[in-house]
Amino acid sequence: MDIRFTPEQERWRQEVIAFLRQEITPAFIDEMEAEDTATSYGHVGFSKKLAERGWLTLSWPREYGGQERSFIDQAILNEQMGFFRAPTGGHHIGVEWVGIPLMRWGTPEQKARFLPPIARMEERYAQVFTEPEAGSDLANAKTTAIRDGDHYVMNGVKVFISSAHLGQWLWVLAVTDPKGPRHKNMSMFIVDVNTPGIRVKGVQTMNHGRVNDVYFDNVRVPVENRIGPEGEGWQIGMTTLNTERSGIAHVTVNMTRLRDLIGYARETRRRGRPLSEDPLVRRRLAEFATELEAQRMLSWRVAWLQSQGQVPSTEASVQSLRRRAFEHEFANFAVGLLGLYGQLARGSRWARLRGEFEKLYLTSASQHAGGTTEIQKNIIALRGLGLPRR
Question: Is residue 270 part of a domain?
Fold first, then answer.
C-alpha cells in the first residue's frame, strides 16, 4: 500500500481544508450543536453546501449525480471532515447506506426516482432494521410485509431507529415469506414515513439524544417500492452494513479531541504545575496518540483495498473493534482528568471543552451500533482467519 498522495490528491486535500476552514467557524459550531441534539445527525444546511459542490456524492457515478471520484479522494474528504468535526449525519444514511445498495439493486425507475433527491440533499432517510428480538441476529426479524395485489401490507415494530423523526423515507428490512428459510425470507423496502399506519415514538437516550420506536400497523407499501427481488433483502441489508462499518472520520475526530485534551493539560495547573508535566498523564496521552495513528493507517488500508476493488469487511471490523474500545477508555481517562468539570454537559457555564467528553463518555458506553462486539469478532474469525464455525 502506497500512503503517499499524488500531486492531484494533495491539491484536492488543500481544497477541502480551505473550504472547511471557511465553513466550520465557532458560530457555526454553536448552530450545529443546537440542531444536532447529541445524535450526530448533523446540519442540513451544511450538507446542502456539500451537495452544491458535488461533494455529497463524490464517488457516485455521474449519471446519478456523482463525480466518479476515487475511494482515495473520498477518504481524503472524510478524513478532513473528521479533523474539523464537520457534521455528516444529515446525509450519510441516504448517501451511503441507501444510495450505494440502491445503485446495485434498484430498477432504472427506482434509481431515477430516489437517487437524485439524495444527491441534492432534498430527502433524508432512516435505516430501519433492529427489532426487540433482532439486533445482532437480524435474521430473527419478525416485522412482516405480506403481498396483497399491488401492495405489501407491513406489520411489526422496529427499535433504536436514530433518525426516523427527521427523515422522509424509511429503509426497511421485513419478512416477506414467514415460512421461508433464514436469510432468504426477507425483502428490502423504501417506505414513506407519512404512510397511514406508521407511528414514530421518540425515546430519550442517556447521552441527551433520541432514538425511536417505529410501529407498522397494516401499512400498505407499493410493490414498486421493494428494492431488489423478493427474498433478497438479507443480501441487500449486508451491503448496507458493510458500508456502515468503514470510514476514517471516526478516527480523525478522535485525533481532534485528543489535541484539545492535550491543550487543556498544558494550560491547567494542579499542585503547582501543569497537568502535562505529570509523567502518568504524559504517558497516557502518548499511548492514545500512538493508538490513533495506528487506527488512521488501518483506515487508509481499508480505503486502499476499496480502491483496488476489494470488500475489506474484515479490516473494517478490526477497525470498528479498536475504535470502540479506544473511545470508551479515552473518554473515561478524559473525564477523570477534567475532574468534576468533566461530568458537565455542554451548555453548562462550567463545562470544559464544550462538554465534549461528557457526551463521548455516555455515547461510548454503547458497544453495539452497526454490529455488536461479538458480531465483529465473528466476522474477523470466519472471514479474516478462516476459522470453522464449530
Answer: yes
User: pLDDT tens digits, residue range 41-91?
Assistant: 568 889 999 999 999 999 899 988 899 999 899 999 999 999 999 987 767
- Orientation of helix 7-23 relative to helix 71-83, angle to 10°: 30
Q: What is the mean pLDDT of residues 342-360?
A: 90
Whether residue 244 lies in the annotated active site: yes
The answer to whether the CB of 118 falls within 8 A of the CB of 104 is: no
Say yes or no to pLDDT of 34 above 50: yes
First to last CA, the chain: 34
Give yes or no: residues 250 and 380 share one domain.
yes
pTM of the model: 0.88
Task: Give the β-pairing of 210-222 and 226-227.
Answer: unpaired
**Whole-number Å distance between alpha carbons of 73 and 59:** 8
Q: Both 251 and 377 in a single domain?
A: yes
Q: Are strands 198-204 and 210-222 parallel, antiparallel or unpaired?
A: antiparallel
For residues 288 and 369, membership in a common domain is answered with yes
Residue 4 has pLDDT above 80, yes or no: yes
State the total domains in the chain: 3
Q: Is the separation of the CB atoms in 115 and 102 below 8 Å?
A: yes
Per the CB < 8 A criterion, the answer to whether 191 and 154 are in contact is yes
Which residue in the block uniquely carries the three cell numbers 436469510? 183
**Catalytic one of 79, 230, 244, 327:** 244
Q: In the structure grid, which three cell numbers stand for residue 212, read together?
A: 425511536
Buried b (16+ CB within 10 A) or exposed e, 22-52: eebeeebbeebbeebebbbbbbeebbbebbe
Of 370, 361, 108, nearest in space to 245 by CA = 370
Q: Which of 101-105, 228-232, 301-305 has the lowest mean pLDDT?
A: 301-305
Three cell numbers, residue 3: 500512503
Average pLDDT score over the chain: 89
Same domain? 252 vs 361: yes
C-alpha cell at 21: 476552514
Task: Please name which of 207, 328, 301 lies closest in space to residue 246, comparing C-alpha atoms.
Answer: 301
Provide the residue type at 99 as one letter: G
Per the structure, the complete domain to which residue 284 belongs is given by 245-384
Distance of CA 320 to the CA centre of its chain: 11
CATH number at residue 82: 1.10.540.10
